[in-house]
Amino acid sequence: MFKNLIIKWKKSKLKDKKYEYLFDEAQKGEYVCLDCETTGLNPRKDEILSIAAVHIKNNKIIMRKRFNVFVKPSKKIDAESIKIHRIRPVDLENAVRPKIAILDLIDFIGNRPIVGYYIKFDIAMISKYTNKYIGISLPNESIEVSSMYYRTRKRSSDYEFIDLKFDTIMKELDIPVLGKHDALNDAIMTAMIFLKLKDLTPAKTTFYTN
Q1: I want to staple 141 with a disulfide (CB 3.0 to 4.6 A). Which of 77, 78, 102, 205 is the partner?
Q2: What is the architecture of the domain spanning 29-204?
Q3: 197: nearest Cα among 162, 144, 146, 149
Q4: Taking Cα atoms as reference points, which of 115, 74, 117, 67 lies closest to residue 92?
Q5: Calpha distance 63→85 (Å, rounded)
C-alpha cells in the first residue's frame, strides 16, 4: 500500500510522462549493475565524472550492452580529487553534458533493479540529476552486493566483524580482478559478485524513496 502511494506521488512529479515506464514491473531475471566515479562523497555538492553500467540477463553479463561515459563537470577538477577518482582533465576532453549522460543512462537502465556496491551512494548521486531533469529520483529497486555477501558469512556471534571491503569480497569469492580501476571495470566486477552470490542468498531489494 505504502509503495503504491509512493509510485503514484512520483508519477505526479514527472516532468515528462514518457518516463512512466520506469514504474512498470521489471522483466524477471534482468538487472543493471552500475558504478559512478565522482568528485567526492557528498551528493549535495559533488558531481559525477563517469558512469558505467552493464545489463545482466538470465544469470549472464551482457557485455554487448554496456554503458560507459565521462561526464563534463561544472568546474575544473583539483589535484586532490584526481587522487581519489583517478580521472584526469585529459580524460574529460570529450565528456558529454550531464543532461545527455543522465537521460541516456535512464534509457539504458529502464525499469530494471539496480545492482551495486554501496549502491545507495550511486543512486543518490544520479538522483540529484534525475530530480533536475525528469522531476524525480530514480524509482528503481536496488540490490546491495555487500549485504548479500554479509548474509553468506558464517559467524560465531552477532558481534563478529565481517570485512565488507570490495577487494576482500572479490578475494573471498575467487573473482578475477580486472585491469585498470575505472567505472566500467568496477561495474563488471560487481556484476560478477552479484551472480556468484545470487545462488547463495536471495537478493534483498530496497525501494529507494528519497
Answers
A1: 205
A2: 2-Layer Sandwich (3.30)
A3: 149
A4: 74
A5: 24
Tally: H helices and E strands in the chain: 7, 6
Q: How far apart are CA 143 and CA 137, in angstroms?
A: 16
State the residue for C-alpha cell 514518457: 18
C-alpha cell of residue 29: 531475471
In the chain, domain spans: 29-204
pLDDT tens, residue by residue, 21-36: 999 999 999 999 999 9
Residue type, 176: P
pLDDT value at position 80? 76
Sign of torsion over alpha carbons 148, 154, 158, 160:
negative
pTM above 0.85, yes or no: yes
As a whole number, mean pLDDT of residues 131-142 equals 96
C-beta separation of 105 from 130 below 8 A? no
100: which 3 cell numbers?
545527455
Q: What is the pLDDT of residues 173-191, one digit of tens each?
A: 999 998 766 899 999 999 9
